[in-house]
Write a structure and sequence with these properties.
It is a single chain. By secondary structure, this protein is an all-beta fold. Helix content is 0%, strand content 50%. It is built from no helices and 10 strands. The strands form 2 sheets. The protein has a 6-stranded mixed β-sheet with strand order 2-10-9-4-5-6, with no helix packed on it. The protein has a 4-stranded antiparallel β-sheet with strand order 1-3-8-7, with no helix packed on it. The N and C termini lie far apart (40 Å).
């Protein structure tokens, strides 16, 4: 079992930045591959970014590449999503989740409750 709790969402103007955090508990966090997903109103949930268990490798959706950065601190059992140059189309509920293997864009078994990010134009 893994429990995930996101925080850091909010309202920001276009061009601004936010940093999301996801605190994990339960299994040994340092062995888990982690990712971020998002779901905008009326759209399907989509992959945003993934990171391997040690934090040395990352990958991103094309829509956020160069603007978002995923990272993790295994000592704090936390994964982050730094979001820069935000656009109105980034507005969504953001979820952290475990990933079944590195490189996948499909989620694993565990999800957080989500945090709302709203970008105004």
């Amino acid at each position: 079992q893994v429990q995930l709790v996101e925080s850091g969402g909010g309202l920001v103007q276009a061009g601004g930045s936010l940093r999301l955090s996801c605190a994990a508990s339960g299994r040994t966090f340092s062995s888990i591959i982690m990712g971020w997903f998002r779901q905008a109103p009326g759209k399907e949930r989509e992959f945003v970014a993934g990171i391997n268990s040690r934090g040395g490798r990352t990958y991103y959706a094309d829509s956020v590449k160069g603007r978002f950065t995923i990272s993790r601190d295994n000592a704090k059992n936390t994964v982050y999503l730094q979001m820069n140059s935000l656009k109105p189309e980034d507005t969504a509920v953001y979820y952290c989740a475990t990933l079944p293997y590195y490189g996948t864009r499909g989620p694993g078994d565990y999800w957080g409750q989500g945090t709302q990010v709203t970008v105004s134009s």
